[in-house]
Amino acid sequence: MIQFLAQNHSAMTHLPIASSILAAAAAVAALFVRRKEITWSMAVLFIAAFVTVLPTVVTGIAAAKGRLNEQGRPYLQTGIFVPDLPENARIHRHQLLGISGTLVAAILAFFGISILRGRTPNRYLIALLALVLAVLWGLGGHLGGQDLWGADTFPAFR
Question: Which of 4, 43, 111, 121 is the most exposed place for a label (fewest CB within 10 A)?
Fold first, then answer.
């Protein structure tokens, strides 16, 4: 089961990242255009980003455990983060950015639910958090993809 989860991590990452980028665009647009449709789509995208990141986190933890196991070491990962060793620096940063983004996504999902219930939270705070989320997951996804698909992993692509 853990191998199945680990193999599907890269596929699971795309929807939360795309949702966060679209939500950030909608949040910035909501600063300038007061339309109910933009606000609602922003709220739904916040919720979608959080809901779709949950399986991404689960598969990411499985992938990290499997990665360490493939290197011939026992499961060094006892929690949700890989050990902070020099050879794990990039993947450790990837995990920190992903988990930090998940916490921000949870806050934005709460705001999204409150928007759908008719409340109006601070638009500037929402836009700032949405941009932070898009940057966290964008950079984290880049680091993870670079680690998986980079030239160090596939020397023929150099």
Answer: 4
Domain borders along the chain are 2-149
Instruction: Tell me the average pLDDT across 74-102.
Output: 77
- Which of 48-57, 85-94, 131-140 is the least confident region? 85-94
Burial of 119 (0-12, 13-18, 19+ CB in 10 A): exposed
Using left for φ > 0, alpha for ψ between -120 and 50, and beta otherwise, residue 85 falls in beta
The Cα–Cα gap between 29 and 149 comes to 34
CA distance 66 to 60: 10
* CA 43/CA 27 separation, integer angstroms: 9
Q: What is the pTM of this model?
A: 0.85
